[in-house]
Write a structure and sequence with these properties.
The complex is a heterodimer. Chain A has four helices and eleven strands; from the N terminus they run αββββααβββββαββ. By secondary structure, chain A is α+β, with helices and mostly antiparallel strands. Chain A has one domain. Chain A has a five-stranded mixed sheet, with helices on one face. In chain A, strand 5 and strand 6 form a beta hairpin. Chain A is globular, with a radius of gyration of 20 Å. Chain B is mostly helical. In chain B, about 80% of the residues lie in helices and about 0% in strands. Chain B contains 13 helices and no strands. The radius of gyration of chain B is 25 Å and the shape is flat. Classes of the chains: A alpha+beta, B mainly alpha. The interface between A and B is large, with 43 and 47 residues.
Chain lengths: ~230, ~350
């Protein structure tokens, strides 16, 4: 019986640690950010098998110009000189895709395409990004991608070490935020119902509701309220 | 893999059959008193082994046991899928408290059921199934809790689930949860390689050296954790597989190495190290009579040789000649192993 008790105790401790740290985080709110929400942001809930959530969709790399991805920034993130010196050049046989590096990523909702978030700033996890009322801060992975010369780059491709151009074409290498963590924010059943009633069930961004995203002092992030 | 108890029972049964043959052939004749003493001793031994619930005393029982093992595995997969799908089907429509209850309570229930099953059903098949589903339920618990609170994914969940599975595996001597435990704790150790390189924990799973270290650790662990004896072959088998797999992959793709430097040099280094380590592993397994490790090592050696042959000859010789060379190497390996086996038989 002692082994069963030990296993049950471990379940209690693990859940307790997660819940208590989340509770502490939510007691120390760093900033509130009001955002527009449209149907394209929403996923799951209702009759689906998926948990209801608000997606953080990144804008194509060509439409963002984040600070912190210059030579000094990449070096601070831990990229090797060989990778940094390859930025802006064509990939050759000596280039090896560097492993993505974790970072704090500042995101701001694009005014012209509200479903998408533009990356505004990137700093190493050891640094700090200020939260404010117009942008949110999440963790993310920074890596390299290859930009095709023709036609314009497609930022939806690739979430691994980088997105290679199609076979036969080679393009310039550039640093980019490959992934944000978390990539979706949980919505409770009341929030998803309220937002669905405003934005409808289509996948278009015609109608919009609003949500307030809260950022904790320790990096936590959650949907505080919707309307 | 047969347990130590099963090996002992099989040895007794084989001894009895051989004794009967020798007596029938007139080679040996035990006096009735000695035969009765021997029979009584073996009956007592077999009864004690059978009481442990894990020993098959006949061929028919062994076949049934194999069926039970398959049923356990299928049942584990089906119950885990049922639980996961049930959670996802009802998750969205629940308030916070029922959501938490839905992911936390089943783990507790399954732990209690594992204990009850282990007490009531001594073979351990039902307990093994329930304990494994409990570990998967715990993983679902932590995963969904992280999703609910928008937490970044963490290697800590691997450790928690691994330790949980190990507690049930060692507490009730269950093999299937042991495998989950090795996967969880091994996976956690593997990801630790990301820390000194400043990578996100998941990227640690692309580093090959930590995988090889986990394999080495798993291989030698039975020396420190000898009990229960039936766990040792699993540790050694998984450890040898991970170690060899790591060496084979590193020799073919130096980019997966955490060692900074020229990729080609790293690959050459691992080719040399691979040859030494795989040969050493096979030699160690032969000396220690570790049949499973020897088989895994031999398979690794054949794979290693095949990969080197591809490296050396594929671009240089016609394809028919390449496969002739592979066939020649396979024959050479057979001859070496045959000679080794002959030497060992003579030594006995």
């Amino acid at each position: 019986m002692k082994w069963a008790l030990a296993a049950a105790s471990l379940v209690v401790v693990a859940n307790g640690v997660v819940l208590v740290s989340a509770r502490r985080e939510r007691a120390l709110i760093g900033a509130f950010t009001a955002i527009d929400v449209c149907a394209e942001h929403l996923t799951g809930g209702g009759d689906t098998d998926e948990a209801p959530a608000l997606r953080l969709i990144l804008a194509p790399d060509s439409m963002t110009d984040p600070s912190g991805l210059d030579e000094a920034g990449l070096r601070a993130l831990g990229f090797a000189d060989a990778a940094i010196s390859a930025v802006g050049r064509e990939r050759d046989s000596t280039f090896h895709w560097p492993r993505p590096r974790p970072a704090w990523v500042g995101l701001r909702q694009r005014p012209d395409s509200l479903a998408q978030w533009a990356v505004t700033e990137v700093v190493p996890l050891s640094g700090r990004l200020e939260r404010d009322s117009i942008s949110i801060v999440v963790r993310g992975l920074v890596g390299f991608r290859e930009r095709r010369q023709e036609p314009p780059p497609d930022a939806t491709a690739g979430h691994q070490h980088g997105a290679a151009a199609p076979a036969g074409t080679r393009g310039a290498l550039y640093p980019a935020v490959l992934e944000v963590i978390p990539s979706r924010l949980h919505l409770d059943r009341g929030q998803i119902a309220a937002l669905r009633s405003v934005v409808g069930h289509t996948m278009e961004c015609g109608m919009k509701g609003q949500a307030v995203i809260a950022s904790g002092a320790g990096g936590g992030i959650w949907v505080e309220s919707v309307r | 893999m047969p347990s130590a108890d099963q090996l002992r029972a099989s040895a007794i049964i084989a001894f009895r059959e051989e004794l009967a043959r020798l007596e029938a052939a007139g080679v040996l004749a035990l006096d009735p008193a000695a035969r009765d003493r021997l029979r009584a001793h073996h009956e007592a031994e077999l009864a004690a082994l059978a009481a442990s619930g894990e020993v098959d005393l006949t061929e028919a029982a062994a076949r049934l046991s194999a069926g039970m093992r398959i049923a356990t595995l299928l049942g584990t997969i089906a119950l885990s899928a049922a639980y996961g799908l049930f959670v996802s089907a009802h998750w969205g429509g629940l308030a916070l408290a029922p959501q938490l209850a839905l992911v936390i309570v089943p783990t507790f229930l399954l732990v209690i059921l594992t204990h009850v099953a282990a007490v009531l059903e001594r073979s351990g098949y039902v307990a093994s199934l329930l304990a494994t589903v409990a570990a998967i339920a715990f993983a679902t618990n932590l995963g969904t809790l992280g999703q609910l609170l928008n937490l970044p994914d963490s290697r800590g969940a691997l450790l928690a689930v691994g330790v949980f599975a190990m507690l049930l595996a060692y507490g009730y001597s269950l093999t299937l949860p042991l495998l989950v435990g090795i996967g969880g704790i091994g996976g956690w150790l593997w990801t630790l390689g990301a820390i000194p390189l400043g990578l996100w924990w998941r990227e640690g799973l692309t580093l090959i050296e930590p995988l090889m270290l986990v394999g080495l650790l798993t291989l030698v662990l039975p020396a420190w954790l000898p009990r229960p004896a039936k766990f040792a072959p699993w540790y050694r088998g998984i450890g040898a597989t991970l170690l060899i797999l790591g060496l084979l992959v590193a020799a073919g793709n130096g980019q997966l190495s955490a060692i900074p430097g020229d990729v080609k040099t790293i690959e050459i280094g691992y080719k040399i190290l691979g040859a030494i380590v795989i040969a050493g592993l096979v030699a160690w397994a032969i000396r220690r009579d570790q049949r499973l490790v020897m088989q895994i090592g031999a398979a690794g050696a054949v794979l290693y040789l095949f990969m080197r042959l591809v490296d050396w000859f594929w671009d240089w010789v016609p394809q028919w000649l390449f496969f002739l060379l592979v066939g020649g190497f396979a024959l050479a390996v057979l001859l070496v192993l045959r000679r080794l086996r002959h030497t060992r038989v003579e030594a006995r």
